[in-house]
Amino acid sequence: MPELPEVEVVRRGLERWVTGRTVASVTVLHPRSVRRHLAGGADFAARLPDRTVGTPLRRGKYLWLPLSSGSGTETSGNVEGLAEPAEPSGFAVLAHLGMSGQLLVQPPEAPDEKHLRVRVTFADDTPGELRFVDQRTFGGLSLHPLTADGLPDVIAHIARDPLDPAFDEAAFHAALRRKRTTLKRALLDQTLISGVGNIYADEALWRARLHYERPTATLTAPRTTELLGHVRDVMNAALAVGGTSFDSLYVNVNGQSGYFDRSLDAYGREDEPCRRCATPIRRRPWMNRSSYYCPRCQRPPRSA
Length: 304
What we know:
alpha+beta, N-terminal domain of MutM-like DNA repair proteins, Helicase, Ruva Protein, domain 3, four-stranded antiparallel β-sheet, 6 helices, 11 strands, 19% strand, elongated
């Protein structure tokens, strides 16, 4: 599943190609791709035309397109749990990429992708329509009111991510001490810190020489700061090369894959030598996933 660097790469591409454009039409080709929009595909398609797309935004792994009102007629009242606020501009399209979701900007004449689910056209002469393509249909698009903080209401509980200038390191450390959990579980807890997934958690822990099962209560404030530094470093390194793509399912808006997988130090390197000490990297089942670590550099806690 795409993590912060992959979603940020997509956000930057969308910022270039869709910001300031007014929606002309929306076609929903597969109802499952708008299942999180409780009013259904027809309502989703009817609400977007004549709205103008603002600068795409992201928090952690979540991406959304703010919408300002246009000349279209607003739907009044409440529709299937989607409350219509007094100010119609307070909405956004939330994109959930799931395992295989792609937001592509394509020329209108380009052949339809095999797994094209939603098409958005724009009312201007700029080339390119927005297509949501999703092979496994785990992802989707939905329309949500925005909170006072500018977040879609369904993700208001998501914590800030480590690349956010407003991320509070001291508060994060205090939360770790209170949580009484283990390090990797904490890094994947989107209510504590957002954007970190399985790949980048393993990479940051390897760089910090910390075992994934180490209790969070044992971390000192300097150690937490060091770990956050490694999280930021690995994410920025991934951003610089377009993210991590193990197959053709994750791509940016132009259909190009990232290649940070060539620089991974731990994840996916079972039995390969550790780049620091040459000890073979191990893989262990972990919460329906896998954890990769060096048994020499990342000593397990005694309790583990």
